[in-house]
Backbone:
């Protein structure tokens, strides 16, 4: 049973290392980032977006969206990028069962970064390639 804490620790460290941050995304796209105005660079570094941002600015600030939605309206096409709360979700379960004269005890630990629709945190709307609206989920 001593191996379970080790496996859990390695899994958590792996998930944390795999998390994309604005600084990692900027480092991978330095030439693009360096062309942004200073005020935009500051917001991108902080993981924030604003009206008028381009797709590149949003990608560096927030990363890839969980989903992309497209809407056709009378005034033009709209693209929505949906972002979820991607933090680790921990789950622990223990089960006990009996079968005749013997008893069985089992347990398990799961770590997941997959979110559900309930974990949606924001939507970024694009019109003509620029952010035209930002929606935040109020919790």
Residues:
């Amino acid at each position: 049973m001593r191996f379970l804490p080790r496996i859990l620790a390695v899994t958590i460290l792996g998930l944390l290392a795999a998390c994309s941050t604005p600084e990692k995304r900027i480092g991978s796209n330095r030439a693009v980032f360096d062309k942004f105005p200073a005020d935009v660079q500051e917001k991108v570094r902080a993981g924030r977006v604003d009206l008028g941002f381009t797709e590149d600015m949003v990608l560096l600030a927030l990363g890839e969206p969980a989903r992309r939605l497209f809407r056709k309206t009378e005034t033009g096409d709209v693209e929505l990028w949906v972002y979820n709360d991607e933090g680790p979700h921990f789950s622990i379960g223990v089960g006990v069962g009996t079968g005749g004269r013997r008893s069985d005890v089992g347990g398990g630990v799961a770590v997941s970064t997959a979110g559900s629709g309930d974990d949606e945190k924001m939507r970024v709307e694009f019109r003509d390639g620029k952010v035209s609206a930002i929606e935040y989920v109020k919790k």
